[in-house]
Amino acid sequence: MARLLWVVQKPVYFLGRQWNGVDIASVVTLTAIHLIALLAPFHFTWSAFWLAVALYYVTGVGVTLSYHRNLAHKSFKLPKWLEYFFAYCAVHSLQGSPLEWVSSHRSHHQFTDTDNDPHTPNKGFWFSHIGWIFDYHKRFGSYDGRLYNVGDLKRQNFYKFLHYTYPYHCVACGVVLYLIGGMPYLVWALAVRTIFVLHVTFSINSICHMWGNQVWDTGDLSKNNWLFGLLAHGEGWHNNHHAFEYSARQGFEWWQIDITWYLIRFLQIVGLATDVKLPTELQKNRKLLFNKISSIEGRFETKVK
Q1: How far is it, in rounded angstroms, from Cα 235 to Cα 226?
Q2: Where exactly are the structural domains of the chain?
Q3: For residues 6 and 133, what is the distance between their CA atoms, to the nearest angstrom?
Q4: Cα 22 from Cα 163, distance rounded (Å)
Q5: Contact between 25 and 35 (Cβ < 8 Å)
């Protein structure tokens, strides 16, 4: 553990900023996996393609259901065995340990679209999309590696174990895929699949704070974006989420497809998901941007008269 803390706590200065071991490892890892993905046309097989699609759903929904709605926002409860299962699926998305992911996301909601937001759009599209991944200090506020806002998870040995062993699980996944299906499985089911899931998730931080529409009075730049509602298993209804961050459901309208919510609802029906949180109609009416604009216009007309 002391060796891991040294990697976090000992930054070096180059290219105009400080970097620590985690930042450098992130650059190397993401560069390598993008380069491996370039081999995709030369190693295509249908079995590798469909396995990549299957793992896109397994790991992607792992992130949205576990890391995001279950652990970060406590939108519902699961039996521990099932909670840990979904968290382990999310580990293989290459988006960090549960402690890291939840910590940065809680900071995002605490400081949304300000300079203290880990992936603030104030630094431009590149930074909010992927540049923030290479800046440990920006993500967690310091180089001490303590992750102050996830005390609830740090009390659970399973999440501490995943935090300190996280890279080994991802490497093991690559080894298993290669042993089963050779280069096609490594290229498609690991590299291509991982890159797709990563950039879809990153787009919630960048694109969904720049392009789309706002329905709710959230006081930030969050937008609903139908494309990423589809690709990110319901996460693209991002203005909905920022209006009611505790909600287990993010696609509120019938046409707002929310794959993650459908799974949560199924788990609720069979008795596995409990304490499922949803906004009431009264809460929605209070938060509607249209109602706020209408109220302001009404007060303005009254003053004019």
Answers
A1: 10
A2: 2-206+274-282
A3: 19
A4: 13
A5: no
**Cα 124 from chain centroid (whole Å):** 19
**What is the identity of the amino acid at 234?**
G
Q: Could you tell me the pTM of the whole model? A: 0.90
Residue 228: which pLDDT band, with cuts at 50, 70 and 90?
Answer: very high
- Which band of pLDDT confidence, cut at 50, 70 and 90, is reported for residue 291? low
- Whole-number pLDDT of residue 289: 76
DSSP secondary structure letters along the chain = -HHHHHHHH--EEETTEEE-HHHHHHHHHHHHHHHHHTTGGGS--HHHHHHHHHHHHHHHHIIIIIIIIIIIT--SB--HHHHHHHHHHHHTTSS--HHHHHHHHHHHHHTTTSTTSTT-GGG-HHHHHTGGGG-HHHHHSSSS---TT-HHHHTSHHHHHHHHHHHHHHHHHHHHHHHHHHHHIIIIIIIIHHHHHHHHHHHHHTGGGTSSB--B--SS---B-HHHHHHTTTTTBHHHHHHSTT-S----STTS--HHHHHHHHHHHTTSSBS-----HHHHHHHBHHHHHHHHHHHHHHHH-
CA 199 from chain center: how many Å? 10
pLDDT in tens, 52-90: 999 999 999 999 999 999 999 999 999 999 999 999 999
Mean pLDDT, the chain, as a whole number? 90
Q: What is the pLDDT of residues 12-46, one digit of tens each?
A: 777 667 777 888 888 999 999 999 999 999 999 99
